[in-house]
Amino acid sequence: MKRHIFYIMLIALIAASCSPYEKIAKISAFDQLQYQDAVKKVFLPSGGYTIAYSDEGHGDKTIIFIHGLGSYSQAWNKNVAELKKSYRCIAVDLPGYGKSSKEPHSGAMTFYASVINELAQTLRLKNVYIAGHSMGGQIAITAALKYPELVSGLILAAPAGFEYFNKGQRQWFRDVMTLDGVRLTTCEAIQNNLATNFYRLPADADFMISDRMAMRNAEDFVPYCYAVVQSVAGMVDEPVLDYLKDLNTPTLILFGENDNLIPNRYLNPGKTRDIAENGHSRIAGSKLVMIPQCGHFLMFEKPEVFNAEVKEFLK
Prior knowledge:
Layout: H1 2-18, E1 40-44, E2 49-56, E3 62-66, H2 77-83, E4 88-92, H3 109-122, E5 128-133, H4 135-146, E6 151-157, H5 167-176, H6 179-183, H7 187-196, H8 206-215, H9 221-237, E7 251-256, H10 272-282, E8 287-291, H11 298-301, H12 303-314
Parallel strand pairs: 3-4, 3-5, 5-6, 6-7, 7-8
Antiparallel strand pairs: 1-2, 2-4
Helix pairs in contact: 2-12, 3-4, 5-9, 7-8
């Protein structure tokens, strides 16, 4: 009897956690998501992918913004809104994410880097700086290593790739991240996952939860889930830590002092600063900024700090 009551209470709790989002309009495709800026699309013939991106502002420098795992270009809303006053700002949806096409792919960091390179060539971009958050940071590093002629500078926001994982730990990531695990994420877990990205969850981040809830009804949701799974394998299969010394481009590194995701709390418990300083020490001439009272999603939680540091860096 007690167990029965417990399960009833648990179901009620989960339902309550979803209730603010019960009236979210269902979408049949990711293209129906509401974006802050106008969306453009370009077909990249070498891989056959259609890439969605926003193109805002003007200037002699162009910033390409690359989102993190499971995210989309809207992660950069607060940064594009300010930085477009001085620079051309291009925020992309990676293949499999957002409004970009969702053909199956490897999820490899070198694959994503090749997409960024082809996008830049197709749009004939010059004086390119790449800003990458989390997984996007590892992609940005990979792009700078693989296409040094493309990248004038790197802006790394809580980048993946600074943390060392041994063979067993890398396999753990592959095992724990499954298609069904992503596809069947509960309402409560979606909210908790986003909250974990912040020191204090901002009220204006709520649209990220609403969008993630709405995505579950879209016809291209399963291909998106597949892209997320492949991306995790891509990160662990192509580490960049040992190659940071080979970077020959100006680099700005930013971390929140209260990052809950780096280092991994289960595999490598420790301080974010230690990871940040280790990566910083390997990149010649780089600048490290540690932001107090700030979590993993630093460019959204403390946009005024991020934007100011980027402006100073691009001078």
